[in-house]
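Severity: low
Component: inverse-folding endpoint
Summary: output formatting inconsistent between runs
Steps to reproduce: submit the following structure tokens with default settings.
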């Protein structure tokens, strides 16, 4: 059973899932073993049976895969639209969490809801996953290139490029936070950014936050996983500060941010500190914490009751920033 210090306990469903499973030896895993594990895990997350954990899509949204031709590669994206014909909808670019494992399908529950209810077109990036040959800049470029492509070609997507937001979870939050910084520098207009259980520090200080010590063996994210993420994301010769929004030289003038923090999470202090630094730089930021929720909780509404409240918070924030209601 995973240990959690302090007064909080994870939801019962998370505790049972943790007790039934055995954590892999992440740091001893070979490259081939990692690829095999993530392929098996992603098949599981994309299965119909997994909906019991990851949640059932909103029936008011249509979901389909599309493939984009980007410089030097073709990349799948999962697109969510409200049912029926609507023109010039807001755009929400989403990046799932996981880092070296994960798929856009695991976020169908929240993304289909946003598409149907805002309404909006949600484009979720099936970015390249981290491994020994693929460091984090590949995923960062995937997120940014998809955002630019869709905004520059609004008509085929049925979007209004002046009403655009980015939304990331875990390492996906790192990708979207960096995209928000690039957007400011390039003049691409963003109305909002949503960062959920954000991992925004890849320097050595990523392990020094109090929440990492307190929740080093949490049920849904552990220190060995974070060590493996760091190894793949920042290969020798890479400046970790360039991939760490927490240490960006200038955080002023960015899109208003909603920072969602589950409290039983090693990277909880990443999100808290980032919200503080955004505010100190003059960027509007709202920090919302969910006591008793675990890392990746928004992708597990079947196990974590707080996911539904977080989804409502994200919906209201995006409705206000994208539609003015």
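Observed output (run 2 of 3):
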């Amino acid at each position: 059973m995973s240990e959690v210090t302090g007064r909080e306990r994870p939801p019962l469903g998370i505790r049972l899932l943790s007790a039934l499973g055995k954590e892999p030896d992440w740091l001893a895993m070979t490259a081939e073993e990692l690829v095999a594990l993530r392929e098996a895990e992603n098949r599981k997350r994309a299965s119909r049976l997994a909906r019991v954990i990851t949640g059932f899509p909103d029936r008011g949204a249509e979901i389909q895969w599309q493939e984009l031709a980007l410089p030097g590669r073709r990349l799948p994206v999962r697109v969510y639209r409200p049912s029926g014909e609507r023109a010039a909808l807001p755009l929400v670019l989403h990046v799932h969490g996981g880092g070296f494992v994960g798929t856009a399908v695991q976020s169908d529950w929240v993304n289909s809801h946003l598409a149907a209810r805002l309404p909006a077109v949600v484009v979720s990036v099936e970015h390249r996953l981290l491994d020994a040959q693929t460091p984090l800049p590949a995923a960062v470029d995937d997120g940014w290139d998809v955002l630019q492509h869709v905004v520059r070609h609004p008509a085929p997507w049925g979007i209004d490029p002046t009403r655009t937001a980015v939304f990331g979870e875990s390492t996906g939050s790192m990708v979207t936070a960096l995209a928000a910084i690039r957007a400011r520098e390039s003049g691409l207009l963003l109305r909002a950014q949503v960062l959920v259980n954000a991992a925004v520090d890849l320097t050595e200080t990523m392990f020094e936050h109090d929440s990492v010590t307190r929740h080093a063996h949490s049920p849904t994210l552990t220190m060995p996983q974070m060590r493996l993420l760091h190894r793949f994301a920042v290969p020798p010769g890479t400046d970790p500060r360039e991939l760490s929004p927490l240490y960006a030289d200038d955080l002023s003038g960015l899109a208003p941010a909603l920072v969602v923090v589950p409290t039983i999470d090693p990277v909880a202090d990443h999100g808290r500190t980032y919200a503080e630094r955004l505010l100190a730089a003059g960027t509007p930021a709202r920090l919302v914490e969910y006591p008793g929720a675990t890392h990746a909780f928004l992708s597990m509404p079947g196990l974590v009751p707080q996911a539904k409240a977080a989804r409502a918070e994200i919906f209201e924030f995006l409705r206000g920033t994208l539609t003015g209601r």
